[in-house]
Amino acid sequence: MTGHDWGYGEDNGPLEWYKDYPIADGNRQSPIDIVPAEAVFDARLSPISLSYNNCTSVNISNNGHSVVVEFIDSDDRSVIRGGPLENMYRLKQFHFHWGCKGCSGSEHTVGGKTYASELHLVHWNAVKYKSFSEAAAAPDGLAVLGIFLDGNAVDFKGFNPKCLLPNSLEYWTYPGSLTTPPLHESVTWIVLKEPIYVSEKQMGKFRTLLFNGEEEDERKRMENNYRPPQPLKGRKVRASFK
Protein backbone atom coordinates (compact mmCIF):
# COMPACT_ATOMS: atom_id res chain seq x y z
CA MET A 1 0.00 0.00 0.00
CA THR A 2 1.55 3.27 -1.11
CA GLY A 3 0.51 6.76 -0.15
CA HIS A 4 -1.91 6.85 -3.08
CA ASP A 5 -3.37 3.39 -2.48
CA TRP A 6 -5.04 3.81 0.88
CA GLY A 7 -8.77 3.41 0.92
CA TYR A 8 -11.61 1.78 2.81
CA GLY A 9 -11.44 -1.82 1.63
CA GLU A 10 -10.28 -4.92 3.51
CA ASP A 11 -6.76 -4.70 2.07
CA ASN A 12 -6.21 -0.94 2.26
CA GLY A 13 -8.71 0.28 4.86
CA PRO A 14 -8.29 1.95 8.25
CA LEU A 15 -7.05 -1.21 9.99
CA GLU A 16 -4.13 -1.33 7.53
CA TRP A 17 -3.13 2.34 7.49
CA TYR A 18 -0.60 1.97 10.32
CA LYS A 19 1.71 0.01 7.98
CA ASP A 20 2.44 3.10 5.90
CA TYR A 21 1.44 5.68 8.50
CA PRO A 22 2.71 4.57 11.94
CA ILE A 23 1.16 7.66 13.49
CA ALA A 24 -2.16 5.81 13.06
CA ASP A 25 -1.38 4.39 16.52
CA GLY A 26 -0.49 7.83 17.93
CA ASN A 27 -1.80 9.51 21.05
CA ARG A 28 -4.23 11.98 19.47
CA GLN A 29 -5.91 10.18 16.61
CA SER A 30 -9.39 10.97 15.27
CA PRO A 31 -12.27 10.35 15.18
CA ILE A 32 -13.35 9.43 18.71
CA ASP A 33 -16.49 8.41 20.57
CA ILE A 34 -17.67 11.51 22.42
CA VAL A 35 -19.19 10.51 25.76
CA PRO A 36 -21.35 13.48 26.84
CA ALA A 37 -21.25 12.54 30.53
CA GLU A 38 -17.45 12.57 30.47
CA ALA A 39 -17.07 15.82 28.52
CA VAL A 40 -15.99 18.73 30.70
CA PHE A 41 -17.93 22.00 30.48
CA ASP A 42 -15.42 24.82 30.01
CA ALA A 43 -16.83 28.27 30.72
CA ARG A 44 -13.79 29.82 29.03
CA LEU A 45 -14.90 28.46 25.65
CA SER A 46 -16.50 31.28 23.70
CA PRO A 47 -19.08 30.71 20.95
CA ILE A 48 -17.62 29.91 17.56
CA SER A 49 -18.07 32.50 14.83
CA LEU A 50 -18.44 31.38 11.22
CA SER A 51 -18.18 34.02 8.51
CA TYR A 52 -19.19 32.34 5.26
CA ASN A 53 -21.32 35.14 3.81
CA ASN A 54 -18.86 35.94 1.05
CA CYS A 55 -17.95 32.33 0.44
CA THR A 56 -16.40 31.56 -2.93
CA SER A 57 -16.38 27.94 -3.99
CA VAL A 58 -13.97 26.87 -6.72
CA ASN A 59 -15.10 23.38 -7.66
CA ILE A 60 -16.71 20.17 -6.52
CA SER A 61 -15.03 16.85 -7.25
CA ASN A 62 -14.68 13.18 -6.43
CA ASN A 63 -11.12 12.80 -5.12
CA GLY A 64 -11.40 9.03 -5.01
CA HIS A 65 -12.24 8.96 -1.32
CA SER A 66 -15.06 11.50 -0.90
CA VAL A 67 -16.98 14.40 -2.40
CA VAL A 68 -14.88 17.55 -1.93
CA VAL A 69 -15.79 21.21 -2.43
CA GLU A 70 -12.77 23.52 -2.62
CA PHE A 71 -12.80 27.23 -1.75
CA ILE A 72 -10.62 30.23 -2.49
CA ASP A 73 -8.52 30.69 0.66
CA SER A 74 -6.21 33.52 -0.39
CA ASP A 75 -8.08 36.03 1.78
CA ASP A 76 -10.32 36.17 4.85
CA ARG A 77 -13.73 36.03 3.19
CA SER A 78 -14.56 32.59 4.63
CA VAL A 79 -13.28 32.06 8.15
CA ILE A 80 -13.94 30.48 11.53
CA ARG A 81 -12.88 32.12 14.79
CA GLY A 82 -13.60 31.92 18.50
CA GLY A 83 -14.23 28.83 20.56
CA PRO A 84 -10.99 26.99 21.29
CA LEU A 85 -9.16 28.84 18.50
CA GLU A 86 -6.67 31.58 19.30
CA ASN A 87 -6.51 32.81 15.73
CA MET A 88 -8.67 33.05 12.63
CA TYR A 89 -8.74 30.02 10.31
CA ARG A 90 -9.61 30.14 6.60
CA LEU A 91 -11.97 27.64 4.99
CA LYS A 92 -10.06 25.42 2.56
CA GLN A 93 -12.56 22.72 1.69
CA PHE A 94 -15.40 20.58 2.93
CA HIS A 95 -16.07 16.90 2.37
CA PHE A 96 -18.31 14.10 3.57
CA HIS A 97 -18.09 10.62 5.08
CA TRP A 98 -21.02 8.19 4.82
CA GLY A 99 -22.10 4.57 5.05
CA CYS A 100 -23.96 2.12 2.84
CA LYS A 101 -27.71 2.09 2.35
CA GLY A 102 -29.36 1.66 5.70
CA CYS A 103 -26.00 1.94 7.46
CA SER A 104 -24.53 4.67 9.60
CA GLY A 105 -21.49 6.46 8.25
CA SER A 106 -20.39 9.19 10.65
CA GLU A 107 -16.79 9.10 11.87
CA HIS A 108 -17.37 10.58 15.33
CA THR A 109 -19.96 8.92 17.51
CA VAL A 110 -21.80 10.33 20.53
CA GLY A 111 -22.17 7.91 23.41
CA GLY A 112 -21.80 5.13 20.84
CA LYS A 113 -24.53 6.57 18.59
CA THR A 114 -23.65 6.85 14.91
CA TYR A 115 -25.21 9.12 12.31
CA ALA A 116 -25.96 8.67 8.61
CA SER A 117 -23.05 10.87 7.55
CA GLU A 118 -20.58 13.47 8.74
CA LEU A 119 -19.58 16.74 7.11
CA HIS A 120 -16.07 18.12 7.72
CA LEU A 121 -15.27 21.77 7.06
CA VAL A 122 -11.48 22.06 6.97
CA HIS A 123 -9.86 25.37 7.91
CA TRP A 124 -6.22 26.37 8.22
CA ASN A 125 -4.49 28.91 10.40
CA ALA A 126 -3.85 31.90 8.16
CA VAL A 127 -2.12 33.86 10.91
CA LYS A 128 0.71 31.42 11.60
CA TYR A 129 1.17 29.58 8.33
CA LYS A 130 1.69 30.57 4.74
CA SER A 131 0.31 27.52 3.00
CA PHE A 132 -2.17 24.71 3.55
CA SER A 133 0.54 22.08 3.14
CA GLU A 134 2.67 23.68 5.84
CA ALA A 135 -0.34 23.97 8.11
CA ALA A 136 -1.19 20.31 7.72
CA ALA A 137 2.18 19.30 9.15
CA ALA A 138 2.32 21.86 11.93
CA PRO A 139 0.94 21.51 15.48
CA ASP A 140 -2.67 22.69 15.64
CA GLY A 141 -2.41 23.99 12.09
CA LEU A 142 -5.94 22.94 11.15
CA ALA A 143 -9.38 23.45 12.61
CA VAL A 144 -12.02 21.00 11.42
CA LEU A 145 -15.69 21.61 12.09
CA GLY A 146 -17.61 18.34 12.24
CA ILE A 147 -21.36 18.29 11.59
CA PHE A 148 -23.52 15.17 11.93
CA LEU A 149 -26.14 14.41 9.29
CA ASP A 150 -29.15 12.47 10.45
CA GLY A 151 -32.39 11.08 9.04
CA ASN A 152 -34.70 13.20 6.82
CA ALA A 153 -34.58 16.49 4.90
CA VAL A 154 -32.37 19.42 4.22
CA ASP A 155 -31.78 20.95 0.83
CA PHE A 156 -28.14 21.47 -0.13
CA LYS A 157 -28.48 24.89 -1.70
CA GLY A 158 -25.43 25.71 -3.77
CA PHE A 159 -22.04 25.44 -2.16
CA ASN A 160 -22.04 28.05 0.58
CA PRO A 161 -21.75 25.82 3.67
CA LYS A 162 -23.63 28.36 5.78
CA CYS A 163 -26.85 26.65 4.69
CA LEU A 164 -25.52 23.38 6.13
CA LEU A 165 -25.14 24.70 9.66
CA PRO A 166 -27.62 23.67 12.37
CA ASN A 167 -29.49 26.27 14.44
CA SER A 168 -27.35 25.66 17.50
CA LEU A 169 -23.57 25.98 17.35
CA GLU A 170 -22.97 24.36 20.75
CA TYR A 171 -19.98 22.06 20.41
CA TRP A 172 -17.46 19.65 21.82
CA THR A 173 -13.77 20.21 21.17
CA TYR A 174 -10.63 18.13 21.56
CA PRO A 175 -7.08 17.83 20.13
CA GLY A 176 -7.00 15.28 17.33
CA SER A 177 -5.80 14.33 13.87
CA LEU A 178 -6.80 14.09 10.26
CA THR A 179 -9.08 11.07 9.82
CA THR A 180 -7.45 10.10 6.52
CA PRO A 181 -3.77 9.53 5.67
CA PRO A 182 -1.34 11.11 6.41
CA LEU A 183 -3.24 11.28 9.75
CA HIS A 184 -1.28 14.31 11.00
CA GLU A 185 -1.95 15.04 14.67
CA SER A 186 -2.38 18.73 13.96
CA VAL A 187 -6.13 19.27 14.22
CA THR A 188 -8.30 21.16 16.67
CA TRP A 189 -11.66 19.39 16.37
CA ILE A 190 -14.91 21.28 16.89
CA VAL A 191 -17.86 18.88 16.69
CA LEU A 192 -21.33 20.41 16.72
CA LYS A 193 -23.86 18.80 19.06
CA GLU A 194 -26.95 19.40 16.91
CA PRO A 195 -27.20 17.37 13.70
CA ILE A 196 -28.63 18.57 10.41
CA TYR A 197 -30.96 16.38 8.40
CA VAL A 198 -30.40 14.67 5.07
CA SER A 199 -32.76 12.49 3.06
CA GLU A 200 -32.01 8.92 2.03
CA LYS A 201 -32.42 10.09 -1.57
CA GLN A 202 -29.62 12.62 -1.11
CA MET A 203 -27.38 10.03 0.53
CA GLY A 204 -28.14 7.71 -2.37
CA LYS A 205 -26.60 10.21 -4.77
CA PHE A 206 -23.32 10.00 -2.87
CA ARG A 207 -23.39 6.21 -3.17
CA THR A 208 -23.61 6.36 -6.97
CA LEU A 209 -20.04 7.69 -7.01
CA LEU A 210 -17.09 5.35 -7.43
CA PHE A 211 -13.88 4.88 -5.47
CA ASN A 212 -10.70 5.19 -7.50
CA GLY A 213 -9.75 1.89 -9.13
CA GLU A 214 -7.02 1.32 -11.68
CA GLU A 215 -8.86 -1.54 -13.34
CA GLU A 216 -12.47 -1.36 -14.43
CA ASP A 217 -13.37 -4.46 -12.41
CA GLU A 218 -11.84 -2.88 -9.29
CA ARG A 219 -14.24 0.03 -9.34
CA LYS A 220 -16.56 -0.02 -6.39
CA ARG A 221 -19.38 2.20 -5.24
CA MET A 222 -18.24 4.89 -2.85
CA GLU A 223 -19.70 3.98 0.53
CA ASN A 224 -18.49 3.28 4.06
CA ASN A 225 -15.71 5.85 3.56
CA TYR A 226 -15.21 6.48 7.26
CA ARG A 227 -12.64 5.64 9.92
CA PRO A 228 -13.93 4.08 13.15
CA PRO A 229 -13.45 5.86 16.50
CA GLN A 230 -9.92 5.74 17.92
CA PRO A 231 -8.76 5.40 21.55
CA LEU A 232 -8.98 8.60 23.57
CA LYS A 233 -5.63 7.94 25.29
CA GLY A 234 -6.10 10.37 28.14
CA ARG A 235 -7.38 13.32 26.15
CA LYS A 236 -10.13 15.50 27.58
CA VAL A 237 -13.16 16.48 25.54
CA ARG A 238 -14.39 19.94 26.47
CA ALA A 239 -17.95 21.17 25.96
CA SER A 240 -19.17 24.71 25.29
CA PHE A 241 -22.45 23.90 27.06
CA LYS A 242 -23.61 22.36 30.34
Automatic annotation (TrEMBL):
A single GO molecular function term of this UniProt record: carbonate dehydratase activity
EC number: 4.2.1.1
GO CC term (a single one): cytoplasm
Biased composition (Basic residues): 233-242
Top-level taxon in the UniProt lineage: Eukaryota
InterPro entries in the record: CA_dom (IPR001148), CA_dom_sf (IPR036398), Carbonic_anhydrase_a-class (IPR023561), Carbonic_anhydrase_a-class_CS (IPR018338)
GO biological process assignments: regulation of intracellular pH
Domain Alpha-carbonic anhydrase intervals: 4-241
Keywords on record: Lyase, Metal-binding, Zinc
Ranges where the record places region Disordered: 215-242
Top EC category: lyase
Cofactor(s) needed: Zn(2+)
Reaction equations catalysed: hydrogencarbonate + H(+) = CO2 + H2O
SMART domains the UniProt entry points to: Carb_anhydrase
Function: Reversible hydration of carbon dioxide.
Family: Belongs to the alpha-carbonic anhydrase family.
The protein, known as: Carbonic anhydrase
Organism: Labeo rohita
